C-alpha cells in the first residue's frame, strides 16, 4: 500500500483512513519492525525544541493524526482527514492480534494499573495472548534485561506506555532488534483500559472535542494546551501563506 502524506511544519502526517492505517502498518510489519506515532501539536512543539525527538517523528513508519489540532491544521491546508485516536488504533491492533493468535507485550503504567488493564483487555478480546507485561517504573540500566526478555517472547505487537517522549525514544532505540514487530507508543491508554480513567462521552469523541472533555475534567491541562494549540495553528497559517 502506497503511503500518502501531508507536511505540517516539517513533519509528514499520514493521510490514511482508520482502516487503511491499520492495514498499512500490518503489511509493513511483514518486512520489518515498525514504529507508529500518534501525533498531536504538543509533540510538534517538543520536536522544535528537541532535535532527537524531531528526528524520531520524521523517521516514524506511521505518523497518524491523533490530536484535534492536527486535524484542524490539515483542514487549514484544505485536507479533510479522519482523526485516528491512538487508543482506538492500538485497540484495533490488539483485536487483530487476538483474532490471529499473535502474541502481545505491554510496557508501562503502575503495576496495579497494568495488571487490571491486561485482565480487562483479555475479557474484551477473546483469545488475546499477552506474553509479557512490565510496569513503567524502571531505570535506564534495567532496559537491556527488559528488552532481552521481551525478545525471548517474540511478540507481534508491543505497546509502550511510558509517556512522551520517553516511549518514542525507547521504541526507536530498540525496535530494530525485533523481527517484524509493531511498536506503538500509547501514552495513558493503560489507565483507560484499566478503568482508572474514563474516556470522553461518545458525543464528544464524534465531534472531535475529546480534548475539551479532558480539559473540563482536568483544568490543570489548560496551561499545557494553551498557548501551545493557538500558537501551533498560527504557525500553520503563516506557513501556508
Give descriptors for this structure:
alpha/beta; 13 helices
Distance between the termini: 32 Å
Q: What is the topology, as strand order, of the major beta sheet?
A: 4-3-8-7-5-6
The proportion of residues in beta strands is 15-25%
Q: What's the total helix number?
A: 13
* H/E element sequence: EEHEHHEHHEHEHEHEHHHHH
Going by helix content, strand content and strand pairing, the class is: alpha/beta
Low-confidence stretches: none
- Oligomer status: single chain
Give the overall shape. globular
The rounded Rg comes to 17 Å
Q: Find the count of extended strands (DSSP E, 2+ residues).
A: 8
Share of residues in helices: 40-55%
Describe the largest sheet. 6 strands, parallel
* Overall average residue pLDDT: 94
Q: How many structural domains are formed by the residues? A: 1
Which helices and strands occur, and which strands form pairs?
Blueprint: E1 5-8, E2 11-14, H1 18-28, E3 34-39, H2 41-49, H3 51-58, E4 62-65, H4 68-76, H5 86-99, E5 103-108, H6 111-124, E6 129-134, H7 143-153, E7 157-161, H8 166-174, E8 182-185, H9 189-194, H10 202-206, H11 210-217, H12 222-225, H13 228-240
Parallel strand pairs: 3-4, 3-8, 5-6, 5-7, 7-8
Antiparallel strand pairs: 1-2
Descriptive report:
With 241 residues, the protein is of the alpha/beta class. The chain has one domain (5-240). It is 50% helix and 16% strand. The strands form two sheets. The chain has a six-stranded parallel beta sheet with strand order 4-3-8-7-5-6, with helices on both faces. A two-stranded antiparallel ribbon has the order 1-2. A hairpin with a 2-residue loop joins strand 1 (5-8) and strand 2. Helix 2 crosses helix 3. It is globular and about 50 Å long. It starts with a strand and ends with a helix.
